[in-house]
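Good day; I would like, with your permission, to put a structural problem before you. What I wish to show you is a protein chain and, alongside it, a tokenised description of its three-dimensional fold. Here, with my thanks, is the record as I have it:
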Amino acid sequence: MTSKKERYQQQLRTPGILLRATRSKGRHVVASESLPKGTLVVSEDAAAFVLLKASMDELCLRCVRPLDEGDSKDQQQSLFGSAGNSKGVVCKGCIKQTYYCSSECMDSDHERHSLECEVVRHLPGITAMHSTDYALMRLVLGVLVNRHLETVATMPSTRTPTEFVFDLVSHRKTCDPKWLACVEACADDFAQYLPEHLSIPASEIVTLACRINSNSHAMVDPTGNTNQEVGVGMFPMVAMLNHACAPNCSFVSTTHGRMIVRTLRDVQAGEELCVTYVDLCTPRSERRGKLLETKHFWCECERCSCLSGESEDAFLDAILCEECKSPSAYYSSKDGESTCTQCGSTITQEQLSLASFKAEQAHSDAHDLFKARHTDSALTAYAQFIQRFENTVLHPNHHLLISAYATMMNCAQRLRDYVSAIRYGSRVIQKMRPHVPANWPELADFEFRMGELWEIVGMAVVEGIISPSELGSLANDGLIQVPSGAESCQEVGSYVVREHALRCFETCLSMRRVAYGEEHVRTIEAGEQVARLNVPIVAALLPSIILGQSRKRLTAALPETLPNAVLVAGLAGGIQAGVALALKVPSALEKAPEHKELVARSEKNFWPVFFSTILRKSAGFAVFFLIFDALKAKLAATKTPASKAARAAQNLAAATLAATFYRLTTWFIDGKLPALPSASEDGTDAEKVFGGRKGGNPYAAALEQIKGSVLKAAVPLVAMDLVLGRPSW
């Protein structure tokens, strides 16, 4: 008979990984052989997981992917107060507390959800009445449901058995008494709603809630580039890894409620594998306090045990010396006094605490403005905080400065001040790096965001929206040095994209390959960005360069041969589409329903498909621009627009008609000009042509494609007119 330890070892399923148990460390995981960085340590499907309230109507409960737009006629008030939206497929039984991205996901989860649906319906009222966390009690329910399913059905072998959840330590005796009292009261009511096959005593519900509270792991959005928490789950195998404030592993979320753990650096045989449970950019005292409160242990890891003066850990809450006025001279506390590490001058602990309090208060005031979405005011408050405290009171790597610059980066992006966002983001990365391990996932996410910002700025320079001189602030900070030979907007913009955006995406890709693995959606996304920018940079910039500046110059120089300029613009779009097909890059122009079919055909017979794609897109773009210019001129001759809004409406009308002809042209080139279906047809041919559903109305699908073309064409044109106050074409 297999022992419990052997069952746990089998569940790890990873060569070179051993599960051990000692009195000092409890159960923990060690490397039985040398492991290179990026080694997969654990890949675990949650024993149970739930989505947080804020993400409940944004992500699929089955696969944790973003919801698609669903039937807008299904409108209903949510129990949480927000109006029901039209995304995805919703379970009506529990009143908009369970969403799926598709009917397939809903059907796959039906057996499980049908067991919890009636209880979930009453859960908001039960938890609100007793001031208990909704996600906590829904996860309790999820564990009970999955435990029951294991007795009546065959569960996936990759999913951890729920009995492992009940092996975890509950720490019930050391839980906060007020929190425990709320959970106990909630459990009494909760137990009344449990059906017989899920029923357990209220006291066991409380103990299970304590286990979840002490051992659950937050799940972040697996498809985005931020660390936004979207759910919480029970991962007993991941919980086997102990905590360290300088971890050699990290855990990241994937789709379908899976958590993976990978090594961040090379690990020697016999070395313990550790992850972190806290923010690594917070001071030692805060980390230890958080761990004691939530995990019920006092951290004695190598980083926390190191003397403050011998570690950069001390910088996270260091106050600079008033006498030295140097960023490298700070006060070190000992025996009730704080002594400067350089000049030896001292201040009392009360003076040190007062300096810290003033900085924390100013930071908190600015953050309150940000949370209230007063973005302009928040950015101003943060700038004043930086001016007042950085390099004068707070050490350059103080945790409040890291937090401030990260929030300022978000503010600048909201305000579309991308140059400033780059400056703030670079400082976040610079200040974070000493406190996190190599290949840290959060640092990789910042690199990705920086790549996006650099590309936006580079393309804005190409389009003439940002002048090269406006990059001076970045040059002053040493973030950019434009080559002396680059003078035109196109040359400077190309340099920014090639040297900075591409470099950030490449750095992100290298880090994500280690921390996330090659197959993770975030790694794939970073790889797509590198592929898109790495193969000749002109391919990425060609549409903007030719469709923008060059087209205007041609039109001005050759007014009598406007069709020639239009054809050049059309050819540029066609070449871009062909290059995108060759690179398999899903650019905005290649998101049409036929794209997957083209890629599949190109794998078998590439060159004919490649050139036919160029022909198709070129002809379509040429027709669009030619008709658009003609219609716009006709409308302008009829009535002179009196305002930017009128001119925008004029552009919209012209773009609508032109886009319709564009779509008809591409159908004609493909030999797929629509014909009336006979009464005997079942819609199969129409489905192939239009991408519509079998048996559906083919013309509805055709109109959807035309509508998509109109939006692609009209939105940029109208936006340019409204924002810039001048004709965009």
User: Anything to note?
Assistant: Residues 308-404 form one domain. The mean pLDDT is 77. The chain has 23 helices and 15 strands.
